Predict the structure.
Amino acid sequence: MSDATAIPDLTARAEALDAADELAKLKDRFTLPEGVVYLDGNSLGALPAGVAETTADVVSRQWGELLIRSWDESDWWTAPERIGDKLAPLIGAAPGQVVVGDSTSVNLFKALVGAARLASPGRTQLLVDAATFPTDGYIAASAARMTGLEVVPVDPSGAAQAIGGDTAVVLLNHVDYKSGRLHDLPALTAAARAAGAVTVWDLCHSAGALPVGLDAHGVDLAVGCTYKYLNGGPGAPAYLYIADRHQAAFDSPLPGWNGHADPFAMTPEFAPADGARRGRVGTPDILSMLALEAALEVWEGVGIEAVRAKSLALTDFFLACVAQYVPRGRVESVTPAEHAHRGSQVSLRTENAREVMRELIARGVIGDFRAPDVLRFGFTPLYVGFADAERAARTLGHIFG
Ligand SMILES: Cc1ncc(COP(=O)(O)O)c(C=O)c1O
């Protein structure tokens, strides 16, 4: 690709912004292929540099040599809580409230049925983000059938008005997967609490990209994946947050032996463990889990506020470059312009979006496509720079040019 059509003002601004960026050096903590602009960390995060070595050790030494002794000697057994505590600061949770394991879908099931069981008796409704990622809607419908609730779809922007005396549980996404819209977690949680409803937040598209503040805002339960902005790897285990104040009463619909107070007592009756550990189900997926633990090391010394500031600067700059490089009328941003409503991605609506994204990828700019007409560009501040944003917009301009 030639630089002939680069706009000097934009390339100079990118250079200056990259030079002033205190997070720029964090890119060295990742293994990224040369020549690729990677804007799909909102789907699958890049590979942190230390993961390959740790994974090799887990396989060859911990499994291969220590064999079953590793459940104790390599601390495999306690990994779900240990890694939960490592991840907790990134979502504003004090230790002891996050347990890692299973998929987001499975944790959502535990959280929703658990929330319905925590809710005040007599309440009938489960409010669900109408634009939610499909798995949340499917699981919510099943959880509602099991617990006798009625699913009521709500637009999260107006959810505060919809929450009332009949609301048992509210399930919302912090950031919408398609548009990149950031919903007002503090205000919506406060509205739910004021109405006596139990909140469940899906943090898949916010954890690792912006401050979440679960404890500070009084969230009840939350779930999220670790393979996006937390870079845990394909199919990395998800997590479940159970606020301290609910742990004693949290009644998991999947009371597996790992969540038992004394798993090796092998008793016929289930007695839940104290703390978030009661959210565990079966034997943890150790290989993925320890890869995630190694991936979390990239956060050493990194503040989520600085990540948020860079994310907004990157998405602002990308939108400015798109406005200059892409002929007017060819794309329309469906991501809110206001910072208060923007996550860490930019979604552009365009005709032939699938083909446009295929062409972008062929030219070394990797984003993704969501049917029917959305190009998604995820900005992971730990490894994406301003020159990347400029090149992505310029490449898009070439395709339309
Ligand atoms: C908001 C949201 N929830 C849930 C999921 C998927 O959950 P799982 O980890 O079970 O595949 C995704 C996946 O992209 C998502 O974006």
Notes: The chain has a mean pLDDT of 97. Residues 53-299 form a domain with the Aspartate Aminotransferase; domain 2 fold (CATH 3.40.640.10).
